[in-house]
Amino acid sequence: MLPLVDDDTEMQEVLERTLSSGIPHANELRLGRSEYHAEDRIVDCRVSLMSSGQSKQALLVEMHDVTRRAKISRENALIIQHGAGRQMIRQLAHEIKNPLGGLRGAAQLLSRQLESDELKEYTSVIISEADRLASLVDTLLGPGGPPNKQALNVHELLEYVVRLVEPEIGDRIRFHRDYDPGLPLIDLDRDQMVQAFLNLVQNAATALDGQGQITLRSRAITNFTIGDVRHNVIASIDIEDDGPGISPQLKDSIFYPLVTSRADGTGLGLPAAQELLSRHGGLIEFESRPGRTVFSVRIPLRSGGKP
Questions:
Q1: For the chain, what percent of residues have pLDDT higher than 90?
Q2: Of 35, 218, 256, 276, which alpha carbon lies 20 to 30 A from 81's?
Q3: What are phi and psi of 83, to 5 degrees?
């Protein structure tokens, strides 16, 4: 049996303790990845001592995979956490909107003073990004109406985000793409999704502290539950980094506004990204350990779903 759990240390301890003490073990157990399973699993594990005859002892091990049940519980906790932070995000959006007008005006004035078309391209980017952020703030301040959706290629959005962040992060952070070419166009609000992906990619780059790899991965997943709605198929977009991981003290509150481990951080990026995904009926999940942190964006491919 041990090859099935790849000689998992915790599992071995449970077996040895039950064998030596004779006391049955019943608990939830997290099993790491193995050659048979690509992801961590959570199982209900029961181990009891039994006789196999001629005074020999044996162990009866019963395991039931409850990974999906645990994930659904965690998703519901994330949704509750997001609801608690939504009002604070709207209040902070008021404070962001005013400086954007000054930024845009200054870029316009600077553009008029420049003679080089090449330099004017930079001010054009500033004005365009200021307009996009102003539109985003208006959305956050609004009554929560539906996004302005259009059929988009999510890979094109990711590549646009990469082009935005590459000048900031230098060439010691590498991007690896693992895209599903069969993923269809998705009805999305372009500005909102660019901002959500931008927040996640910038967080990953910051965690790497100037060196490492960010993996962008896309997959289609069938029969996936978001909150209390089961979707026939969703798009799953992973932003993965090989940095040190998220501090255990922050894992339960990371989507609350103003929660950050960085002295210069605002703690707004993840809550804002979660808000934008909720407007698409989606959700952001994460898992983290040293050397691997993954934020997974779950987006329904169709607007409907089954409770």
A1: 31
A2: 218
A3: -60, -40
Give the separation between CA 68 and CA 186, rounded to whole angstroms. Answer: 25
Residues 98-153 pLDDT 10s? 788 888 999 999 999 998 888 889 999 999 988 888 876 776 565 455 688 999 99
Query: Counting Cβ atoms within 10 Å, is residue 37 exposed (0-12), middle (13-18) or buried (19+)?
Result: middle
* Contact (CB, 8 A) for 274 and 259: no
Distances (CA, A) of 75 to 61, 80, 91, 230, 241: 29, 9, 25, 13, 21
| Res 219: pLDDT | 95
Spatial distance between the Cα atoms of 290 and 307, rounded to a whole number of angstroms: 36
Q: Give the pairing type, strands 173-178 and 150-152.
A: unpaired
Domain 69-300 carries which CATH code?
3.30.565.10
Q: Which residues of the chain have pLDDT under 70?
A: 1-10, 29, 31-40, 51-56, 66-92, 136, 139-146, 253, 256-268, 303-307
Domain ranges of the chain: 2-65, 69-300
